[in-house]
Amino acid sequence: MSQIKAAITAVHGYVPEFVLSNEVLETMVDTTDEWITTRTGIKERRILREKGKGSSDLGAEVVKGLLEKSGTHADEIDLLICATVTPDFAFPATANIIAEKTGLRNAWSFDINAACSGFLYSLVTASQFIENGKYKKVMVIGAEKMSMMTDYTDRTTCVLFGDAAAGVLLEPTMDNVGIMDSILRTDGSGTFHLYQKGGGAVKPASFRTIAGGEHFIYQEGQQVFKFAVTRMADVSVEIMDRNNLKSENVAWLVPHQANLRIIDATARRMGINKDQVMINIEKYGNTTSATIPLCLWEWEKKLNKDDNVILAAFGGGFTWGSVYVKWAYDS
Ligand code: ACO
Question: pLDDT at residue 2 above 90?
C-alpha cells in the first residue's frame, strides 16, 4: 500500500550582499588567504551589515521566494519551522516573526535549535506532519546571522562563519519520492566543545560576560573536527546501507559546509566522487542551518525527479544526522 510521503516541491535561498573576503580578513586578524583556503576551503562569506536587521529578515526573503516560485498563497501555509542558533530575540521564536513579515496568517510556527544539524532536524520534524496527513504545505527554513556572535578579533572562528538563509516547501505525495529515510543523533557530551558561554540561563548577560567575550562562538576546532569527520560519515554510510544504495545510485551528496576536509572525508567513506558532491563553502563559509538548503537552491537546476540525494550534517550539541531524499521534480 502506498503511503503519504513528504516531498520537497520548491527550494529558495537568500544571501546578504556584503562580501567579506579572505583578503579583507587578512587586514583584520593574523591570518592568510592561504591558511584559510587550505584548512577550510573558504574564500569569502556574506555578512548582514544593516543595523536592526536579523535572521528573520533573511528568512522572510526565503519564504517570499518559496511562495512566489511555487505559486502558493501565504494563507495556504499550515506550518513554518525555522532552524536557527541566531534568533532575533531569545523569545519569541524567529519563525513567528518571519510568519508576521510574510503574512502567513493561517500557519503556526516555531524554531528548532540544533546548530548545524538544524535544517535536518527541522526537515524530519516537518515531514511527520505531512506523512500523518495532518498538513498539506509546510515550510522549513534555516536562517542565520552568524556574524552577530562572531568575534572578529578571534582568527580561529571569524574566518569560518557567514550569514544566509535558505529553505524548502514540503507537500504530500503518493509517488514514491520525498523524504525516504533519516538518521538523527545527539551527544550532549559535546556541549562544551562548541557553544556560546554567556547569555543563557546558566550565565545571564552581565558586564562580566560581555567583558569576557562570552557572547561569541566558542569552538575547540580540533575536537569538533574529530567528531564531525567520523559521525557525519557514519550515518551517511548507514543510511546508504539500509536503503540498499550503492555509491553509483546516489546522484548527490549534500553535506553541511563547515570544512572542505570534512566534506571530502565523508564523500570518500561513502565512495562518492567529488563531482557528485554539492560544495559552495568557498562562497559562503559555514552558515550553520542554512548550508544544506543553500546548496539545494544553487544546484536546483541540476536536480532531476527520482534522483537519490543524501543530506548530511554535523554541528554543535553535538548533533548530527543524514536524510535520504528522492528528489520530486525536474526543474
Ligand atoms: N589563520 C592562521 N592560523 C590559524 C587560524 C587562522 N585563521 N586559525 C587557527 N590558526 C592556527 C592555530 O592558532 C594553530 O596554531 P598553533 O599550532 O601555533 O597553535 C594552528 O593554526 C592549527 O590550529 P588548529 O585548530 O589545529 O587548526 P585545524 O586544522 O584544526 O583547523 C578548523 C581549524 C578549521 C576550525 C577545524 O578544526 C574545523 O573545521 N573544525 C570543525 C568545525 C566544525 O565542523 N564545526 C561544526 C559545525 S559549526 C556549528 O555547529 C555552529
Answer: no
Instruction: Say if residue 188 is in the same domain as residue 101.
Output: no
pTM of the model: 0.97
Instruction: Report if residue 101 sits inside a domain.
Output: yes
Atom 24, ligand 1: which residue's CA is nearest? 222
Instruction: Inform me whether the pLDDT recorded for 1 exceeds 60.
Output: no
Is 295 among the residues known to form the active site? no
Cβ atoms of 102 and 165 within 8 Å: the answer is no
| Closest of 179, 127, 169 to residue 13, by C-alpha | 169
Residue 176 annotated as catalytic: no
Measured CA to CA, the distance from residue 190 to residue 210 in angstroms comes to 24
Q: Show the cell assigned to 296.
A: 539545494
Q: Is 193 among the residues known to form the active site?
A: no
Q: Are residues 16 and 99 in the same domain?
A: yes
Domain ends where: 110, 144, 176?
176
Minimum CA distance residue for ligand 1 atom 13: 156
Mutate to test the pocket of ligand 1, among 33, 39, 154, 264 (most ligand atoms within 8 A of CB): 39
Q: Is 267 within a domain?
A: yes
What's the confidence (pLDDT) of residue 331? Answer: 84
**Structural domain containing residue 131:** 5-176
Q: Rounded CA gap, 265 and 263, in Å? A: 6
Domain limit, last residue, from 126, 141, 176 = 176
How far, in Å, CA of 171 to CA of 4, rounded?
10
Residues 57 and 188 in one domain: no
